[in-house]
Amino acid sequence: MARVIVVKRKVLHFISAAFLLLAGTIAYYSWTGGGIEPVGGLPEGDRVIHMVTGEFESTTADGRKIEAYGWNPGTVFVEKDEKVKLVLYGVNGESHPFYIEGTTIKGEVRKGKETVVPFQSSKEGTYRIICLTHMDKDHSGPMIGYIVVD
Ligand SMILES: [Cu+2]
Protein backbone atom coordinates (compact mmCIF):
# COMPACT_ATOMS: atom_id res chain seq x y z
CA MET A 1 0.00 0.00 0.00
CA ALA A 2 2.79 2.44 0.97
CA ARG A 3 4.59 1.59 -2.29
CA VAL A 4 1.45 2.47 -4.33
CA ILE A 5 1.23 5.86 -2.59
CA VAL A 6 4.92 6.59 -3.40
CA VAL A 7 4.37 5.64 -7.05
CA LYS A 8 1.21 7.78 -7.21
CA ARG A 9 3.14 10.71 -5.69
CA LYS A 10 5.95 10.28 -8.28
CA VAL A 11 3.37 10.24 -11.10
CA LEU A 12 1.75 13.36 -9.63
CA HIS A 13 5.18 15.10 -9.49
CA PHE A 14 5.87 14.11 -13.08
CA ILE A 15 2.48 15.43 -14.25
CA SER A 16 3.03 18.70 -12.31
CA ALA A 17 6.48 19.17 -13.84
CA ALA A 18 5.17 18.41 -17.34
CA PHE A 19 2.31 20.87 -16.82
CA LEU A 20 4.68 23.61 -15.61
CA LEU A 21 6.99 23.01 -18.60
CA LEU A 22 4.06 23.21 -21.02
CA ALA A 23 2.64 26.34 -19.34
CA GLY A 24 6.09 27.98 -19.39
CA THR A 25 6.56 27.18 -23.06
CA ILE A 26 3.12 28.59 -23.99
CA ALA A 27 3.78 31.73 -21.91
CA TYR A 28 7.21 32.21 -23.55
CA TYR A 29 5.84 31.88 -27.08
CA SER A 30 2.90 34.20 -26.44
CA TRP A 31 5.19 36.86 -24.94
CA THR A 32 7.78 36.61 -27.69
CA GLY A 33 5.34 36.02 -30.57
CA GLY A 34 7.06 32.72 -31.27
CA GLY A 35 10.50 34.20 -30.80
CA ILE A 36 12.08 32.31 -33.68
CA GLU A 37 11.18 34.31 -36.77
CA PRO A 38 13.50 37.03 -38.07
CA VAL A 39 12.33 40.61 -37.62
CA GLY A 40 9.72 41.40 -40.28
CA GLY A 41 8.75 37.75 -40.76
CA LEU A 42 9.87 35.37 -43.44
CA PRO A 43 10.36 36.96 -46.87
CA GLU A 44 8.01 36.18 -49.74
CA GLY A 45 9.51 36.44 -53.20
CA ASP A 46 12.59 38.50 -53.91
CA ARG A 47 14.42 39.94 -50.95
CA VAL A 48 13.91 43.67 -50.54
CA ILE A 49 16.86 45.92 -49.74
CA HIS A 50 16.08 49.49 -48.73
CA MET A 51 18.39 52.43 -49.33
CA VAL A 52 17.65 56.13 -48.83
CA THR A 53 19.30 59.26 -50.13
CA GLY A 54 20.92 61.20 -47.30
CA GLU A 55 22.90 64.38 -46.88
CA PHE A 56 25.78 65.56 -44.71
CA GLU A 57 26.17 69.29 -44.07
CA SER A 58 28.83 71.22 -42.24
CA THR A 59 30.52 74.63 -42.04
CA THR A 60 34.27 75.03 -42.28
CA ALA A 61 36.32 77.21 -39.90
CA ASP A 62 36.27 80.05 -42.48
CA GLY A 63 32.45 79.93 -42.66
CA ARG A 64 32.11 78.00 -45.90
CA LYS A 65 29.14 75.61 -46.08
CA ILE A 66 30.01 72.16 -47.37
CA GLU A 67 27.73 69.21 -48.07
CA ALA A 68 27.77 65.71 -49.49
CA TYR A 69 24.96 63.40 -50.53
CA GLY A 70 25.16 59.67 -49.99
CA TRP A 71 23.25 56.40 -50.12
CA ASN A 72 22.28 54.95 -46.78
CA PRO A 73 23.24 52.24 -46.12
CA GLY A 74 26.32 52.84 -48.26
CA THR A 75 27.05 49.16 -48.78
CA VAL A 76 24.61 46.27 -49.26
CA PHE A 77 25.31 42.55 -49.68
CA VAL A 78 23.71 40.21 -52.21
CA GLU A 79 24.37 36.51 -52.83
CA LYS A 80 25.56 35.50 -56.30
CA ASP A 81 22.45 34.74 -58.48
CA GLU A 82 20.11 36.04 -55.75
CA LYS A 83 17.17 38.10 -57.01
CA VAL A 84 16.67 41.22 -54.93
CA LYS A 85 14.64 44.39 -55.20
CA LEU A 86 16.49 47.57 -54.36
CA VAL A 87 13.96 50.05 -53.02
CA LEU A 88 15.56 53.48 -53.24
CA TYR A 89 13.77 56.25 -51.33
CA GLY A 90 14.49 59.91 -51.94
CA VAL A 91 14.80 61.81 -48.67
CA ASN A 92 17.47 64.48 -49.16
CA GLY A 93 18.05 66.16 -52.53
CA GLU A 94 15.45 66.72 -55.25
CA SER A 95 16.79 64.32 -57.88
CA HIS A 96 19.44 61.64 -58.13
CA PRO A 97 19.82 60.19 -61.62
CA PHE A 98 21.95 57.06 -61.20
CA TYR A 99 23.36 54.01 -62.88
CA ILE A 100 24.81 50.75 -61.57
CA GLU A 101 28.29 50.21 -62.93
CA GLY A 102 28.79 47.01 -64.94
CA THR A 103 25.04 46.64 -65.63
CA THR A 104 22.45 48.23 -67.93
CA ILE A 105 20.52 49.51 -64.88
CA LYS A 106 19.85 53.22 -64.70
CA GLY A 107 17.12 55.35 -63.17
CA GLU A 108 16.32 58.31 -61.00
CA VAL A 109 15.44 58.76 -57.34
CA ARG A 110 13.26 61.78 -56.59
CA LYS A 111 12.44 63.36 -53.24
CA GLY A 112 9.49 61.67 -51.50
CA LYS A 113 9.35 58.84 -54.07
CA GLU A 114 10.50 55.22 -54.14
CA THR A 115 12.35 53.83 -57.12
CA VAL A 116 12.32 50.02 -57.30
CA VAL A 117 15.22 48.34 -59.08
CA PRO A 118 15.31 44.56 -59.65
CA PHE A 119 18.92 43.39 -59.29
CA GLN A 120 20.56 40.02 -59.89
CA SER A 121 24.11 39.13 -60.81
CA SER A 122 25.79 35.84 -61.66
CA LYS A 123 29.17 37.53 -61.41
CA GLU A 124 30.78 38.17 -58.03
CA GLY A 125 32.20 41.58 -57.37
CA THR A 126 31.41 45.06 -56.15
CA TYR A 127 28.91 47.04 -58.20
CA ARG A 128 28.86 50.78 -57.63
CA ILE A 129 25.58 52.69 -57.67
CA ILE A 130 26.62 56.12 -58.87
CA CYS A 131 24.61 59.34 -58.80
CA LEU A 132 25.28 61.46 -61.90
CA THR A 133 24.37 64.76 -60.23
CA HIS A 134 26.68 64.27 -57.24
CA MET A 135 29.72 62.71 -58.90
CA ASP A 136 32.50 64.27 -56.81
CA LYS A 137 33.15 66.66 -53.93
CA ASP A 138 32.77 69.72 -56.18
CA HIS A 139 29.21 68.51 -56.91
CA SER A 140 28.24 67.59 -53.30
CA GLY A 141 29.40 64.02 -53.60
CA PRO A 142 30.72 61.53 -54.35
CA MET A 143 27.33 59.86 -53.98
CA ILE A 144 28.35 56.25 -54.51
CA GLY A 145 26.88 53.12 -52.95
CA TYR A 146 28.38 49.63 -53.09
CA ILE A 147 26.50 46.43 -53.92
CA VAL A 148 28.73 43.53 -52.93
CA VAL A 149 27.87 40.27 -54.73
CA ASP A 150 29.49 37.09 -53.37
CU1 LIG B 1 22.68 62.38 -55.92
Characterize the structure shown.
By secondary structure, the protein is an alpha+beta fold. It folds into two domains: 40 residues; 103 residues, Cupredoxins -  blue copper proteins (Immunoglobulin-like). It is 21% helix and 41% strand. It contains one helix and nine strands. The strands form two sheets. Strands 3-9-8-5-6 form a five-stranded mixed beta sheet, with no helix packed on it. The chain has a four-stranded mixed beta sheet with strand order 2-1-4-7, with no helix packed on it. A hairpin with a 5-residue loop joins strand 1 and strand 2. The mean pLDDT is 85. Bound molecules: copper (II) ion (CU). The site of copper (II) ion has 7 residues, from loops.
Task: Please give a handful of descriptors for the protein shown.
single chain, 150 residues, Immunoglobulin-like, 41% strand, binds copper (II) ion, 21% helix, five-stranded mixed beta sheet, four-stranded mixed beta sheet, elongated, alpha+beta
